[in-house]
Amino acid sequence: MAHPYYTADLKWKIVQEYKKEGRVLAKLTRKYGVHHSSVKEWEQIVNKEGKKGLEHRPHEKVYSKKVRQAAIADYQSGNYSLREVSQKYEISSPSVLRNWLKNYNRHRDILERAKERGISMTAKRQKTTKGERIQIVRVALQNDKDYQVTAELCGVSYQQVYQWVRKYEEGGWDALDDRRGKPKPGAALTIEEKLKRQIREKEKENERLKAEVDFLKKLEQLEKGEIKR
């Protein structure tokens, strides 16, 4: 990614010098301190959009999952280079496609290792603790809200991941509490009932903490390839 000090005018100047010098990068990288890949990306933008394309965009372009999958498939076929695929699907720069490939390969490796070791990462769970839901939402956010990959990694359904992320975005972590079957606030309780409730809540809290720790360990060990049959 280019340093923010490179204005549209300077990028344009560098690209013109690059073309004039017969596309020799060594001189430009020393003169302007710019990475050679950035110069090539700027040239691609100029060829497609002109100087206007070099101007700062306040919002990044959004690509559909279908476009990402098609672009990855084309590159992996071996028939296209990163630059050719980027041009074909109008991706802003090869570095964007490179990040997609990196994430795709990471997810695939994790799932393949899980399958080889017989680890049940894809079995759909009916119940989850709040701690698990928090970690699953974090995984989804770290992977650009790829709900399907998150569901496969964490052993829950696509719909569950989608709903938890939506709840978190609307109400924060507290929105992930499971309030099913809980009594209404203010319900009259005897001292004995209050004590029983406190004991149950303490037991649930201990279970939640244990499940959260186990969940994090499992993901960490799986990513490192440390889990064996």
TrEMBL record:
Source domain of life: Bacteria
This protein's UniProt keywords: Coiled coil
InterPro entries reported in the protein's UniProt record: Homeodomain-like_sf, InsJ-like_HTH, IS150/IS1296_orfA-like, Trp_repressor/repl_initiator, WH-like_DNA-bd_sf
Residue ranges annotated for the Insertion element IS150 protein InsJ-like helix-turn-helix domain, each copy included: 132-184
Any coiled-coil regions, as ranges: 188-219
UniProt key word Transport: no
Gene3D superfamilies the record matches: Winged helix-like DNA-binding domain superfamily/Winged helix DNA-binding domain
Gene Ontology molecular-function annotations: sequence-specific DNA binding
Keyword Coiled coil: yes
Record family assignment: Belongs to the IS150/IS1296 orfA family.
Protein name: Insertion element IS150 protein InsJ-like helix-turn-helix domain-containing protein
Species, as recorded: Virgibacillus phasianinus
